[in-house]
Design goal:
three-stranded parallel beta sheet, globular, about 70 residues, alpha/beta
């Protein structure tokens, strides 16, 4: 797959998941397992309460319907 890291998002529930994504040059999303204060220092691009929120951040925004 010839995909540029900056067009990807690394999703994980551990500190090292976010750090690996940042090192690769990707956006990062952290799925919370514990208190966010534990993860504040790693500064993920997105914080998710569950994986069910993932489509909301990867889906392109819809344009308003034209009449």
């Amino acid at each position: 797959m010839q995909v540029k890291p900056e067009s990807c998002i690394a999703v994980g529930d551990r500190e090292y998941d976010v750090l690996a994504g940042k090192k690769a040059g990707s956006l990062t999303a952290l799925v919370l397992r514990d208190s966010f204060s534990v993860y504040e220092k790693i500064k993920p691009d997105y914080i998710l309460k569950s994986l069910e929120e993932l489509p909301d951040i990867i889906r392109p925004p819809r344009s308003p319907e034209k009449k």
